[in-house]
Structure prediction request, 676 residues.
Amino acid sequence: MTRVRPGGLALGAALLVALLLLAAWHVTQGTTQLGATELLGWLGGERGDSAIILESRLPRTAAAIVVGLALGAAGYAMQTITGNPLASPDTLAVNGGAGAAIALAAVLGVSLPGLGGAALAFAGGIVAALAVVAIGRGRGSTTQMVLVGTALALALQSVSTVAIILAEQETAGLYAWGVGRLSQNGMGTVAQLLPLVLLGIAALLLLARRLDVLALGEEAATTIGVGVGRLRLTTLVAAVALAAAAVAIAGPIGFVGLAAPIVVRLLAARVPGAARHVVAIPLAALSGAVLVVASDVLLRFVLGGIRSMDVPTGVVTSLVGAACIIVLARSMAGAAESESMTVLGSRTLAARAWLPIAVTAVLLAALAVGAVLLGDRMLLLGDVANWLAGRAGDAVRVTLDTRTPRVVAAVLAGVALALSGALVQAVARNALADPYLLGVAGGAGLGAIGVITLVPAAAGWLVAGGALAGGAAVGALVIALVGWHRLGTLRLVLTGLALSAGTAALTSMLIVVTDPYNRAKAIVWLAGSTYGRGVEDVVPVAVTIVVAVLALVWMHRDLDLAQLDESTPRLLGVRLPRVQVVALVLAVALASTAVAAIGVVAFVGLVAPHAARALVGARHRVLLPLAALLGGSLTLLADTLGRTLIAPAQLPAGVMTALVGIPYFIWLVLQAGRSR
Prediction:
């Protein structure tokens, strides 16, 4: 029989007391005044406030506790079987798979008997987790698995976004649910899934002794006779079942399964016996419950009763989880590994640089013509000619007056994002760097939505100014957290991903609090779209591109040297710090004004520079023009397809670029892992 030391019991008792106190406080919060006196009276048998407590307060508190228990235990088990301190239902894409499965089921009208949503969530979560573990294992797998899981989670989030757009009636309320929301209609769902959660935790406790051995290393476990493969699969199934139950109750509440185990591991290092799984798993479960309840208490305390009902609790937990990733990125194994710019190899596909540039320019021109003609209303070249001559009918004139600025916005934003990505990759000497993955695009989106929230009629330069302020703030924060001389490491990407999650959570909160029913606003600023763009929206990005091109004509040779190493530029008389600062300022300005023009579009700044480098090599004299043309073409194609495929409905450009960018990013991560 396993003996639990007093230290572990004391720690568990402390967490339980904290949970009970927070739960009592949580029950008193809401739109109706209810204090400790009324709560004690209800416990003593008074029935005056029983309807409020039983139908409104207790279901939300119970949901917070059950969700926290499930995610905390699931996260700790996932970290053990992967040997990865950043593994969690979020970073292994379990929450993303579960959420996408439920979203698709809502669109298709699919329902399962018995556990219903939990069964669907389990199916989506287990498929996603197995895919991440299968793809992400290998050399450098600690960081590689997290990057692959995060990319797959973004892809699955795009699936959920498409579901929301395609079936607005069937998916009503799914957007806020997708960030993690504890509001409940009675105790039915919680009561139905509580046995599943308890069963999942019990299964992990039965596996605790074998997990202790696995934690010592795979070789040690195999030597002792533990079936490592079977143990990992069994544990993963139990952990995914727990995460699926949490998603079915409250949606994907972010990073609880990451933060709670981290807290337990830090405490276990100081408490004898607390690291054993028979103790650590219940402690992680209690820590998760404390975290979720405390987050909801804080949310309702700061925003008040009515406003807090609209804000998903997952916003607060996502911010906590982002902070955990940033802290771990500074110390975890593999985070200091350098990502060389040579992961694609040194060969180029084109013998002459001018040929792919000319072909891409022709392609962009053809795409621009097609984009003007295609959409919910198909046009002919004659219609365009009449519009240019001022002889078009009202229907054609209105169509082209609204469509042409969208085409220009897509092209210019794509050009700006591609140039920004090329500059960041050169300065950081990091093959995985781009404005989205570094959080700059997310910061710009937060700044832009902040301006629009404060000044609803804002447009043009005012929105661009807010985006530039947000992007610059996040960019400066990334450099401060990572360190100037560590920009070429995986720490840069992990920190950027954490800040991207944080800024996305804050953006979601702003939208839900200030304009919860404006679905178009959420889609534009979280998934990227040219919807509603006008001439005034593209002027800032156009001016920024002109300034950047003039600067890059002067400094392209310096960038060639800057991407090599620290010493070569100095030996040749190049002032490297000045080149790096100017390049980063231009990169932030380009990314921010692009976001101000069309919202947050992912992976253009990653794919376009890499494709250009593969075609013409690393000389920026030819790399930058080709990357710009490819970026404009990719974004324009994505926007045109999004406007045309399901017209009159529209898919965000960011969803379409993710279909190309996410597989490419996963391939780059795997290439980098093989090269180490």
